Amino acid sequence: MEFASYLAGEPWSDAPQCTDPMLAHLARSVNDQLSDARRGELAPDIPRVVGLRGDHRVLAPVVALRAAATALPVVAAGRQQALAVALLSLPRLVPDDVAPGLRVDIDAALASAPHATAWAEKHVRTQPIRERDLRRGASAVAVQLATSGILEACVDDPESLLVGLLREAISDVEDILSTPDADAVPVIPRREAVPA
After folding, report:
1. What rounded mean pLDDT belongs to the chain?
2. Contact 89, 138 (CB under 8 A)
3. Is the per-residue pLDDT at 163 higher than 80?
4. Between these two residues, 154 and 190, which has the higher pLDDT value?
5. Which residues pair with 54 in a beta bridge?
6. CB-side neighbour CA atoms (13 Å) of 14
7. How far apart, in Å, do the first and last CA atoms of the chain sit?
8. Can you tell me the distance from the alpha carbon of 168 to that of 155, in angstroms, rounded to the nearest whole number?
9. Is pLDDT at 182 greater than 50 in this prediction?
């Protein structure tokens, strides 16, 4: 994110104004989980995040949902329950016509962890989460649980899963911001990158 701030001509920062705050949070989380040997794989994606800003009320839950949907099938059971709650609760913050492909991935993730999903459905039914509370911090918590859970997961190559997660989240945001129905998601104009 520091290099993204440089490309955007902003002061050096790991939270540049040129990138949606939740996408930046995911990028930092993925970067922090990767080994030094694998961090270079993120370099080609740095220019992609420059200018990706829009309505944070929509983009934040989309990024968090992508992270949770990617992580749910592979993380430990305790994290699965929390991520399943996020996958059941956060979609109500996203307009129905936004990110339809992500909704398919959410359904597939929930189906991959039936015990966690059943637990989460009961939890959400008996202890509903208010929209205000979801907006306050649920997305950031879901991103953090997802990225740390993926790194600790018993899968062959968790770092590749993390890199893929970040790339998919960037694509989700790019797709939303390039939608022909720009009225649905207000867009902050993309800044031109400063030549290196």
Report:
1. 85
2. yes
3. yes
4. 154
5. 187
6. 7
7. 15
8. 19
9. no
Tokens of 22: 């939740």
Q: What SS3 state is found at 54?
A: strand
Q: Check residues 189 and 170 and name the one with the higher pLDDT.
A: 170
**In the structure encoding, which two tokens stand for residue 123, read together?**
């939890």
pLDDT greater than 80 at residue 11: no
**DSSP structural state of residue 153:** S
Confidence of residue 191 (pLDDT cuts 50, 70, 90): very low
Q: Are 164 and 86 in contact (CB under 8 A)?
A: no
Q: How many angstroms separate the CA atoms of 68 and 85, rounded?
A: 10
Q: Which amino acid is present at 150?
A: I
Token pair in block for residue 165: 């997660």
Residues 69-83, mean pLDDT to the nearest whole number = 95
Q: Which residues of 25-58 are buried (b: 16+ CB within 10 A; e: fewer)?
A: bbbbbbbebbeeebeebbeebbebbbbbbbbbeb
**DSSP codes of every residue in 55-83:** -HHHHHHHHHHHHHHHHTTTS-HHHHHHH
pLDDT at 67: 97
Cα distances (Å, whole numbers) of residue 46 to 37, 50, 72: 17, 7, 26
Cα 65 from Cα 143, distance rounded (Å): 8
